[in-house]
Amino acid sequence: MELLSITPETFQGIVEIAARTLKKGGVIIAPTDTVYGLVADATNESAMAKIYGIKEREPQKALPIFVKNMAMAKKIAAISPKQQYYLEQKWPGKTTAVLKRNNGLKIFGVNGETIALRIPFYPFMNSLLETYNLPLAGTSANISGFPASTKIDDVLRQFADKKIFPDLAVNAGDLPDSKPSTIIDLTLPAIKIIRP
After folding, report:
1. Given its phi and psi angles, is residue 157 left (phi above 0), alpha (psi -120 to 50 degrees) or beta?
2. Which residues pair with 65 in a beta bridge?
């Protein structure tokens, strides 16, 4: 696993290296506005299989998806004007919204009927999404059953002795203390909070 440290000088180069890694079907550890995440191209079936293998996650458990903007969100989810207005108050930010899927783009690792989307608020992830220009699976960088973390050393330690591990780790140092994003279900008549 390659480890690259972000500085103002290396930022753009690392975004481009990360995008190339994703293009080849790789999985990266990346800093986000919540915790460190595992990120892969959500339109690449083998990359999505790899992220499940790294995380040791059951394949029937759907993964949340990062999108770069509302237009990309609307390509893969049915978003009403009322839902859009609500989401524009929350995005970009730490809210993942479960929405009804549409058939605009083939996405792997998600349920047939619904999809969980988020626009993050973190320079590296926003630049990567802009550069890559496809939806990215984004799940906390931990083995299933272990805690998510904002500490890069804790994250790397979890994957140190595994047979399957990420291709690239982007080190932004320890992130501010945070928990994973709030998950809300917008497919019901009333908004339901799944994870506060």
Report:
1. alpha
2. 117, 137
* Helix pair 11-23, 123-132: axis angle to 10 deg: 50
| Distance separating the N- and C-terminal Cα atoms of the chain | 33
Whose CA is closest to 38, among 140, 157, 153?
140
- CATH code of the domain containing 73: 3.90.870.10
Is residue 26 within 8 Å of 134, Cβ to Cβ? Answer: no
pTM: 0.94
Distance CA 144, CA 53 (A): 10
Burial class from Cβ neighbours inside 10 Å (0-12, 13-18, 19+) for residue 80 reads: exposed
C-alpha–C-alpha distance, residues 96 and 179, integer Å: 13
Q: Left if phi > 0, otherwise alpha if psi is -120 to 50, otherwise beta: which for 103? A: alpha
CB 36 within 8 A of CB 85: no
Question: How far, in Å, CA of 132 to CA of 120, rounded?
Answer: 15
pLDDT in tens, 24-76: 999 999 999 999 999 999 999 999 999 999 999 998 899 999 999 999 999 99
Element housing 115 (H / E): strand 114-118
- Domain holding 175, by residue range, is 2-195
CA distance 142 to 154: 9
